[in-house]
Q: What sequence folds into this?
C-alpha cells in the first residue's frame, strides 16, 4: 500500500482536490460559511463557544456536506 | 394546390417527417382509400387527389446529420463538416434505405411538397431531403403548413400549399446543427483526449454549447447547498380560546433572531387577554390560465404527475400523431379564433368525461384567455376534438386530460376567492391568521384537480372579540438551503435565460444525466460534473456561462426571421471556438489530471473520514493509489511520517457514519450501492473484529 503521487501537489486535508491553502476551494468556501454564520449563532443563543458551535452545526441536517466536513475537522483541532 | 399549376408529366412527391404523418395525410386526402406499398422497405402511399397523382413518403426524424470527414475519433480540431445520411454518422440509424427509397421516388416526380413539421427541426429535415435525396429541389418544392393532423386541417394545408420563401427556419436549423457540432466535437475530443493522456482508458467526456451553461446552473446551486451553514431563528404561534372554540395565529414577525427575545414575547403574552383588533375580508379574482406552450405543459406535468420533461414531450408527440392534440413543440400561449373553438368543443362533448363542461361552454361566448408567448408557426397546444381511436396509454392519458382541461379552463370566467385576515393583539404584540377559500369556481370547475388551491374555512370572529391566551409557543428553526433544481425547474431556468430551444431543452437535460454529471431525481451534481465546469471556467470560461450561448441564440433567431446571416455566424463560431480550444490544449495535462481524479469519485461520496487516531494531528481520508487506482484509507500526515492506513471495499459509495467506533475511535463508514448499505469500522485491527475472529 502506498500513497505515491500524493506529494506531487498539495492536497486538500478533506478531499483529493488540490489545496489552495490546506483546503480546496470548496472546503475553503465551507470554512468561510462557518465563520460568517458564527456571530449570528452567538447572537441567537447569547453565549456559544466556537467548539460548541461547530458541534451543533455538524449535527444540523441543513448544513451542507462540505461545511459539515470542515466543521468536523476544525472541531478536532 | 391542384389546378393552380398546369398538369405535368410525373407525380407529386410529398415528403412527411414521420411514417404516422404520411399515413394520416394519405388517409385525409384520399378519404381513406389510399393503400400503402413498399419501396426498398419504406412504406409509400399512392392516390389521386384533385386530378393529380400523389406519392406520399416519409422520413423518420433526421435522415441527415452533420459530421466530420475523419474516421479517427481522436482527431481535433475539426473545422470541416458535411451533412451525411445519418447512419454513416451513427450506426444503426437506419437512414440509408430510406434515403435510397426517396431518391428512387424523386426520379419519377415532377413536383415536390414539403409536409414536414413546421418548426426549425422539421424544416431542416425537409430541406435536407429535398436537397440531397431529391436532387436540389429545396427551393422549388411547395410547403404544406398544418398544426394538427385532423382531416380538415390537412386538406386545407394541401389546398393552400405555396412556395417556401426565404426558408429562414431551415437555414437557422442547419446553422444550429453545424454550430453545435463544431462546439461539441472539439470540446469533447479535447476533454476526452486529456483524460486519455492521464493513463485512463478512453471515456467520452462531453460538453456542448448549451449543455455547459445548463450544467453550470446546477453546479452553482450545488456549491451553495454543500457549503451552506444555517442560522437559527424562532417562530412564535399563539393559541387563543373563546367559549370552547380555539384559534391558532402566527406572530406578526416571521423570524425572531434571538432566543432571549422569543422567551420575552412568550412570557409577556402568557395568561393575558387578547383582542381581535382587525378583521378584514378581501375578495380576490383569479383569472383563467393561458393555454399551454410546450414549456408550460412540461412543468405542469412534472408538478401534477411527476413526469419528466422528456417523457411529457414523447407523450404529447404521440397524441399529436394520433390527431388528438395540436403540434406540441410550440412557444405560443395564444389561440386564434381560426382554431375553431366551437368545433373542438362539440367534438369534446362527445367524450363522456368532458361532455358536461364542453356543452356548458358552448352555450356562452367563446373567448379564451391568452398569454404573452408567441410562435410564428403554431398556436398554443390544444385538443383537436377528435375521439381517441384506442385508449391512450397511461402517460398519454394524463397529458391528454391535462391539455383538454387546460383548454376548457381558458374559456371559463375568473374564479373568486375570499380571504379573511384576523389580527389579534396581546398588549403590544400582534398575531395574524389568514384563511382563504373559493366562493365561485369559474374556470376552476374545469381544472380543479390540477389547480393545487386549498380551502381553509374562515373563523367566525368580529372586531373587538376577546380571547384568553391559551398558550404561546416558540419553536427553534433554521434557515433552509436553496432547493436543488429538478428537471422541470432547470427547464424553466433555461427558458428564462433563453438558451436552447423548446425542442431541445428536455434532451439536453437528459444528456446531463446520461453523461454522469448529475445523479438521481434531485439532480445532485457528481464530482465529474463539478470538475467539467471547473475546467471550463479555468480554461474556456465562455462555455460555462450564458452570454456566448445567448448571443448565438439571438443570432440564430435573426437567421430564422430574415433567412440570411448563417455563413457569418458560422465564421464567428469557428473563431471563438478556436480561442477556447487553445486554452484547453495548452493545459491538457492539468485538465487530464483533474478529470482523472473526478472520474474515480461519485456524487456525495466523502473523502474525509475523520481525525487520525494514530498521530492525533492529521485527518484520515480516502486515498487512491496512482499505480493500482485502488482506494484505501490514509492519513493526511503521510508526508510527515504517519503511516495510519486501512483497506476499503472497492465498490460502492463511502459515507461517514457519524460517530467514531466505540472500540478503537477509528471512523465508522456506510458503504452504499449494493443491495443494502452496510456499516463498518475502517480499522483492520479493531478489537471488535478481533472478538469476531476469535
Ligand atoms: Zn476539499
A:
Amino acid at each position: 500500500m502506498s500513497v505515491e503521487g500524493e506529494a506531487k501537489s498539495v492536497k486538500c486535508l478533506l478531499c483529493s482536490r488540490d489545496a489552495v491553502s490546506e483546503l480546496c476551494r470548496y472546503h475553503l468556501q465551507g470554512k468561510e460559511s462557518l465563520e460568517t454564520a458564527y456571530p449570528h449563532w452567538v447572537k441567537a443563543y447569547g453565549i456559544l463557544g466556537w467548539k460548541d458551535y461547530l458541534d451543533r452545526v455538524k449535527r444540523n441536517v441543513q448544513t451542507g456536506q462540505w461545511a459539515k466536513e470542515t466543521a468536523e475537522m476544525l472541531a478536532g483541532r | 394546390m391542384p389546378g393552380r399549376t398546369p398538369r405535368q408529366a410525373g407525380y407529386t412527391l410529398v415528403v412527411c417527417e414521420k411514417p404516422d404523418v404520411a399515413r394520416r395525410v394519405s388517409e385525409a386526402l384520399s378519404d381513406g382509400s389510399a393503400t400503402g406499398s413498399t419501396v426498398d422497405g419504406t412504406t409509400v402511399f399512392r392516390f389521386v387527389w384533385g386530378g393529380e397523382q400523389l406519392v406520399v413518403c416519409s422520413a423518420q426524424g433526421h435522415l441527415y446529420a452533420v459530421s466530420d470527414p475523419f474516421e479517427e475519433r481522436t482527431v481535433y480540431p475539426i473545422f470541416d463538416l458535411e451533412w451525411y445520411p445519418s447512419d454513416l454518422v451513427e450506426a444503426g440509424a437506419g437512414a440509408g434505405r430510406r434515403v435510397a427509397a426517396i431518391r428512387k421516388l424523386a426520379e419519377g416526380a415532377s413536383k415536390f411538397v414539403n409536409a414536414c413539421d413546421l418548426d426549425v427541426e422539421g424544416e431542416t429535415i425537409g430541406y435536407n431531403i429535398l436537397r440531397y435525396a431529391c436532387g436540389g429541389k429545396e427551393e422549388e418544392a411547395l410547403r404544406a403548413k398544418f398544426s394538427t393532423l385532423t382531416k380538415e386541417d390537412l386538406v386545407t394545408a394541401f389546398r393552400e400549399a405555396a412556395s417556401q420563401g426565404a426558408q429562414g427556419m431551415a437555414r437557422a436549423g442547419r446553422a444550429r446543427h453545424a454550430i453545435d457540432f463544431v462546439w461539441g466535437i472539439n470540446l469533447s475530443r479535447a476533454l476526452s483526449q486529456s483524460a486519455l493522456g492521464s493513463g485512463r482508458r478512453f471515456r467520452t467526456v462531453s460538453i456542448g454549447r448549451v449543455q455547459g451553461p445548463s450544467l453550470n446552473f446546477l453546479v452553482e446551486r450545488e456549491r451553495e447547498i454543500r457549503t451552506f451553514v444555517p442560522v437559527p431563528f424562532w417562530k412564535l404561534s399563539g393559541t387563543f380560546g373563546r367559549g370552547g372554540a380555539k384559534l391558532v395565529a402566527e406572530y406578526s414577525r416571521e423570524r425572531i433572531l434571538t432566543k432571549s427575545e422569543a422567551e420575552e414575547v412568550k412570557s409577556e403574552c402568557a395568561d393575558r387577554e387578547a383582542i381581535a383588533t382587525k378583521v378584514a375580508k378581501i375578495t380576490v379574482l383569479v383569472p383563467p390560465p393561458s393555454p399551454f406552450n410546450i414549456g408550460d405543459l412540461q412543468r405542469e406535468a412534472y408538478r401534477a404527475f411527476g413526469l419528466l420533461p422528456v417523457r411529457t414531450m414523447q407523450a404529447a408527440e404521440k397524441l399529436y400523431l394520433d390527431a388528438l392534440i395540436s403540434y406540441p413543440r410550440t412557444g405560443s400561449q395564444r389561440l386564434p379564433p381560426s382554431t375553431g373553438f366551437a368545433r373542438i368543443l362539440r367534438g369534446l362533448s362527445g367524450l363522456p368525461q368532458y361532455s358536461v363542461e364542453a356543452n356548458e361552454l358552448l352555450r356562452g361566448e367563446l373567448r379564451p384567455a391568452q398569454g404573452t408567448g408567441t410562435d410564428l408557426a403554431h398556436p398554443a397546444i390544444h385538443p383537436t376534438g377528435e375521439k381517441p381511436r384506442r385508449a391512450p396509454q397511461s402517460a398519454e392519458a394524463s397529458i391528454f386530460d391535462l391539455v383538454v382541461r387546460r383548454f376548457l379552463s381558458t374559456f371559463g370566467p375568473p374564479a373568486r376567492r375570499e380571504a379573511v385576515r384576523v389580527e389579534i393583539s396581546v398588549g403590544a404584540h400582534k398575531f395574524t391568521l389568514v384563511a382563504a377559500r373559493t366562493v365561485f369556481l369559474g374556470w376552476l370547475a374545469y381544472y380543479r384537480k390540477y389547480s393545487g388551491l386549498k380551502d381553509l374555512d374562515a373563523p367566525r370572529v368580529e372586531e373587538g372579540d376577546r380571547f384568553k391566551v391559551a398558550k404561546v409557543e416558540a419553536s427553534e428553526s433554521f434557515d433552509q438551503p436553496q432547493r436543488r433544481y429538478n428537471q422541470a425547474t432547470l427547464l424553466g431556468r433555461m427558458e428564462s435565460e433563453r438558451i436552447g430551444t423548446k425542442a431541445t431543452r428536455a434532451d439536453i437535460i437528459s444528456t446531463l444525466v446520461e453523461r454522469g454529471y448529475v445523479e438521481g431525481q434531485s439532480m445532485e451534481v457528481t464530482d465529474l460534473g463539478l470538475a467539467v465546469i471547473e475546467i471550463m471556467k479555468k480554461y474556456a470560461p465562455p462555455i460555462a456561462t450564458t452570454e456566448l450561448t445567448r448571443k448565438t441564440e439571438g443570432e440564430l433567431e435573426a437567421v430564422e426571421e430574415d433567412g440570411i446571416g448563417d455563413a457569418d455566424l458560422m465564421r464567428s463560431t469557428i473563431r471563438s471556438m478556436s480561442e477556447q480550444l487553445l486554452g484547453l490544449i495548452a493545459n491538457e495535462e492539468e485538465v487530464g489530471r483533474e478529470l482523472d481524479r473526478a472520474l474515480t469519485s461519485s456524487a456525495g461520496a466523502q473523502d474525509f473520514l475523520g481525525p487520525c487516531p494514530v498521530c492525533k494531528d492529521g485527518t484520515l481520508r480516502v486515498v487512491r493509489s496512482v499505480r493500482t487506482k485502488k482506494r484505501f484509507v490514509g492519513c493526511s500526515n503521510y508526508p510527515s511520517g504517519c503511516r495510519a492506513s486501512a483497506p476499503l471495499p472497492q465498490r460502492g459509495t463511502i459515507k461517514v457514519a457519524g460517530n467514531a467506533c466505540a472500540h478503537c475511535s477509528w471512523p465508522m463508514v456506510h458503504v452504499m450501492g449494493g443491495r443494502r448499505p452496510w456499516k463498518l469500522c475502517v480499522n483492520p485491527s479493531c478489537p471488535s473484529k478481533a472478538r469476531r475472529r476469535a
The mean pLDDT of chain B is 89.
